[in-house]
Write a structure and sequence with these properties.
Length: about 260
């Protein structure tokens, strides 16, 4: 596995300079205070949530690819920080009390980074509840349902009309909820926040995944606003070369990703 590290530039986040690639899952040996955050990552909408947040906050990070097509997510050193065998996960060497902390689940990571930096996550309870609702809405609706919709549309060995229709309807319902929410506001929950950051990666792929957003003009407008942000552009473009070569028809890849049971 490779490792990429990014350091913040003095004035503003300068994209690539903040990031470094690692060659292994082992953390670099350096004083924890100045050590970049380790980001365990694969270029998917869940991974982009965290690259976008790190870019928005100008936090230096080391990107450690987790090749989920080859089973890196089941390696013991990864399971030790992410027991659900899913990326993203982070290790912040300068965690609470100056000691390292590991975090899995993208929503929990976004909240942690928001609390740590004081950015994109209000401090007052009312504002925070507002953001949490839409963050949890993403975690429980937009993300998982889009994942299942894509699975049955693109990866299932047989075309199952019931499953395809069920999840396509859900996607339509979900973008409808988002469209209504965005009717009279620029962002999902007050100012631009981790709730928007959680959603943008999924929404940015909606049309490519076959969902027509033309009936959801407020979602489209919101998406354009977010995609114009330099940090969002950088976060969405953190690439891993190996990901370009994954063949979802390869039986070995399918066995790793689509045949998981308790171990
Ligand atoms: N709820 C988790 C979902 C993460 C997730 O589903 N990650 C996928 C890639 S998008 C993964 O790591 N898959 C590996 C696998 O299926 O074994 C989060 O938001 O962090």
């Amino acid at each position: 596995m490779a490792r990429i590290t990014k350091k913040p530039s003095p004035k503003k986040a300068s994209g690539r300079k903040n990031r470094r690639v690692s060659k292994s899952l082992e953390p670099a040996r350096r004083a924890s205070k100045n050590k970049p955050i380790d980001l365990y990552y694969w270029p998917t909408p869940n991974g982009w949530k965290i690259t976008i947040m790190l870019e928005e906050c100008s936090l230096p990070y080391t990107m450690i690819p987790v090749d989920i097509s080859k089973g890196d997510q089941f390696k013991p050193q990864f399971l030790a920080i992410s027991p659900n065998n899913r990326m993203p996960a982070i290790v912040d060497h300068d965690g609470p009390d100056g000691r390292p902390i590991s975090i899995f689940e993208s929503g929990a990571i976004l909240q942690y980074l928001g609390r740590k930096t004081g950015k994109f996550y209000p401090r007052d309870d009312r504002g925070r509840v507002e953001v949490d609702q839409w963050l949890f809405w993403q975690m429980a609706n937009l993300g998982p349902k889009a994942g299942e919709a894509n699975h049955f549309r693109h990866y299932a060995p047989e075309k199952l009309p019931y499953a395809i229709e069920r999840f396509s309807n859900e996607m339509n319902r979900i973008y409808g909820v988002m469209n209504t929410r965005l009717k009279d506001r620029e962002f999902l929950a007050g100012n631009y926040s981790i709730a928007d950051i959680a959603c943008v990666g999924w929404a940015s792929r909606a049309e490519r995944h076959g969902y027509d957003l033309s009936g959801f003009p407020n979602v489209r407008r919101w998406l354009q606003t977010l995609q114009a942000r330099p940090a969002v552009k950088r976060g969405l473009s953190v690439k891993v070369e190996a990901a370009f070569h994954v063949d979802m028809k390869d039986p070995n890849v399918r066995a790793v990703l689509f045949n998981q049971k308790a171990r």
